[in-house]
């Protein structure tokens, strides 16, 4: 396995890019440690697949270098990078048995048959497919086909990195959780460097130790699932991660503090910088209905099972709160309280308050 370093990486599909808007990847510097589980998370068009294709060698970046364990591989072809890739759609041979599908990447490299048999048995055990080793792949269900596709990526023990490109897209929702759990288990057992590309926050947060959140060709935050939820460094991260996403509420700065719809708001810590577009961010989980606080009126109540999401209007601005137990009726007057250590100022979308001590 390998440590992967991306240094000053930029890429444009235009022959003569003239500005940032011409770049699919604007500027990326990353280190992925050997044996780690990482996710690239972001909406369609944010640059995830471009970055994955650059790492795999299908694209040569316009600028910057890619290193595996310190070795520059930027100009190497895909077959010289020693990687395995699992795609959205299962890449297997329907006319072959499961056993031969798993063995194929090893036979293609001249591995001795005894070693192949040992490795195939090991991977089949990890995937819980021992009872279907002699079944033709054409007869498998879609989730089992994707299991075999994953197994083909994992069967080699000499790869630098295993990359998963939206591998659960075609899987039925009720089966996704099984494959997510299996993939996490596989990583813990084989400790291969794995990069998982997805637009689905649940897939990213349940698989990865570190999540790279991308927007418009830029990395806006790298962190653990807990870090991304508890302290978003950018409003996009707060909005994209969480259900519902973070409240992002426009405010006016004055006298070293801020006002929201005319009301003073207590922040987690001191404010950094000045000028620019300002907003406060607070997750609905840290907004409570109280006897005192911001006067509001309930606009809508959504029962989502374990709790309800109350949407209330403070002046002309909507604020969401996660509420357990009894909820007010639509149109009822309420007061909202923001938990101070979870209320942060964002300046031009980037965090601008010191963390609560």
UniProtKB/TrEMBL annotation:
Single annotated GO MF: ABC-type ferric iron transporter activity
Pfam family, one: TOBE_2
Chain ranges of the ABC transporter domain: 4-241
Domain of life: Bacteria
GO cellular component terms, A-Z: ATP-binding cassette (ABC) transporter complex, substrate-binding subunit-containing
Keywords for this protein: ATP-binding, Cell membrane, Membrane, Nucleotide-binding, Transport
Gene3D superfamilies, alphabetized: 2.40.50.100, Nucleic acid-binding proteins (2.40.50.140), P-loop containing nucleotide triphosphate hydrolases (3.40.50.300)
Family membership: Belongs to the ABC transporter superfamily.
Official protein name in the record: Sugar ABC transporter, ATP-binding protein, putative
Transmembrane regions listed in the UniProt entry: none
Species of origin: Roseobacter denitrificans (strain ATCC 33942 / OCh 114) (Erythrobacter sp. (strain OCh 114))
Stored PROSITE patterns: ABC_TRANSPORTER_2
InterPro entries: AAA+_ATPase (IPR003593), ABC_transporter-like_ATP-bd (IPR003439), ABC_transpr_FbpC (IPR015853), ABC_transpr_MalK/UgpC-like (IPR047641), Mo/tungstate-bd_C_term_dom (IPR008995), NA-bd_OB-fold (IPR012340), P-loop_NTPase (IPR027417), Transp-assoc_OB_typ2 (IPR013611)
SUPFAM superfamilies: MOP-like, P-loop containing nucleoside triphosphate hydrolases
């Amino acid at each position: 396995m390998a440590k992967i370093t991306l240094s000053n990486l930029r890429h444009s599909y235009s022959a003569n890019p003239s500005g940032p808007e011409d770049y699919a990847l604007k500027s990326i510097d990353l280190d992925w440690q050997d044996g780690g589980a990482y996710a690239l998370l972001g909406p369609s068009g944010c640059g995830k697949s471009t970055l994955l294709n650059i790492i795999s060698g299908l694209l040569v970046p316009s600028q910057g270098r890619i290193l595996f364990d310190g070795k520059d591989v930027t100009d190497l072809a895909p077959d010289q990078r020693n990687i395995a890739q699992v795609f959205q759609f299962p890449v297997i041979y329907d006319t072959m048995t499961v056993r031969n599908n798993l063995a194929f990447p090893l036979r293609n490299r001249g591995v001795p048959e005894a070693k192949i048999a040992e490795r195939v048995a090991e991977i089949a055990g990890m995937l819980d497919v021992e009872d279907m080793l002699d079944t033709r792949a054409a007869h498998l269900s879609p989730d089992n086909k994707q299991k075999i596709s994953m197994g083909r990526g994992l069967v080699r023990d000499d790869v630098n990195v295993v990359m998963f490109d939206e591998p659960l897209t075609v899987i039925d929702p009720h089966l996704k959780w099984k494959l997510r759990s299996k993939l996490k288990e596989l990583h813990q057992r084989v400790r291969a460097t794995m990069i998982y590309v997805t637009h689905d926050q649940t897939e990213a947060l349940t698989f990865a130790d570190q999540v790279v959140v991308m927007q418009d060709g830029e990395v806006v935050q790298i962190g653990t699932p807990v870090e991304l939820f508890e302290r978003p460094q950018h409003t996009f991260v707060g909005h994209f991660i969480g259900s519902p996403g973070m409240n992002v509420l426009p405010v006016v700065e004055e006298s070293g503090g801020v006002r929201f719809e005319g009301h003073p708001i207590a922040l987690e810590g001191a404010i950094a910088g000045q000028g620019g577009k300002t907003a406060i961010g607070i997750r609905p989980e840290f907004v409570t209905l109280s006897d005192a606080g911001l006067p509001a009126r309930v606009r809508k109540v959504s029962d989502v099972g374990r709790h309800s999401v109350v949407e209330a209007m403070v002046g002309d601005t909507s604020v969401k709160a996660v509420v357990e137990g009894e909820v007010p009726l639509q149109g009822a007057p309420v007061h909202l309280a923001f938990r101070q250590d979870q209320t942060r100022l964002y300046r031009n979308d980037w965090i601008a308050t010191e963390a609560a001590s």
